[in-house]
Amino acid sequence: MTGSPWRGRAPLLLASASATRRALIESAGLPVETRAAGIDERALEAEGTRLAPADLAQALAVAKCASVARAAPERVVVGADQVLDLDGSVLHKPADPAAAHAHLAWLQGRTHALHSAVAVAVGGSVVDRFVATARLTMRPLDEAGITAYLAAAGPAVATSVGAYQLEGLGIHLFADVEGDHSTILGLPLLPLLACLRARGLLTF
């Protein structure tokens, strides 16, 4: 990649099929390849039911990273996960329009946290991990407003926790947002780049 600060011998390996996370890494000028971790996230979550939401996000990111790193020990691997925390309760991607409607009904008029966790593996082992948190306050919404939003957003609501995409129509739902944009999208770039820089993997 022309002008890239990346010093690794091979592109960064992202333990995720997320197009959004890949685009974030590419936006920072880093070459990246993706490989799905192939882990059962809900089973891992069930095992960690006593974990706080931020710790759960971290555990899932580490599990993804470690799974891919074991199969590709020669690569620098990044694993990431995001958990939506509403007063200590975790919300997942809605399974259907009814679930999306229910999620928005719970979130409207309230502040929730998005915990975005990252793990980095070098030489087949996880060497760094961190969590960044953003806080989002959804404006009050009535039934008609929720229904209108879901109709306008379409199937995309099922691809994100909370049934919204802040980078799209979801921005209309919010009164206040506190936190880095990349954290909200699920991959905190600033701490990730700091981690890679500290390990001599970036030129500047």
UniProtKB/TrEMBL annotation:
<dbReference type="Pfam" id="PF02545">
    <property type="entry name" value="Maf"/>
</dbReference>
<feature type="active site" description="Proton acceptor">
    <location>
        <position position="81"/>
    </location>
</feature>
<dbReference type="InterPro" id="IPR003697">
    <property type="entry name" value="Maf-like"/>
</dbReference>
<keyword id="KW-0378">Hydrolase</keyword>
<comment type="similarity">
    <text>Belongs to the Maf family.</text>
</comment>
<protein>
    <recommendedName>
        <fullName>Nucleoside triphosphate pyrophosphatase</fullName>
        <ecNumber>3.6.1.9</ecNumber>
    </recommendedName>
</protein>
<comment type="function">
    <text>Nucleoside triphosphate pyrophosphatase. May have a dual role in cell division arrest and in preventing the incorporation of modified nucleotides into cellular nucleic acids.</text>
</comment>
<dbReference type="GO" id="GO:0009117">
    <property type="term" value="P:nucleotide metabolic process"/>
</dbReference>
<dbReference type="GO" id="GO:0005737">
    <property type="term" value="C:cytoplasm"/>
</dbReference>
<dbReference type="InterPro" id="IPR029001">
    <property type="entry name" value="ITPase-like_fam"/>
</dbReference>
<keyword id="KW-0546">Nucleotide metabolism</keyword>
<dbReference type="GO" id="GO:0047429">
    <property type="term" value="F:nucleoside triphosphate diphosphatase activity"/>
</dbReference>
<keyword id="KW-0963">Cytoplasm</keyword>
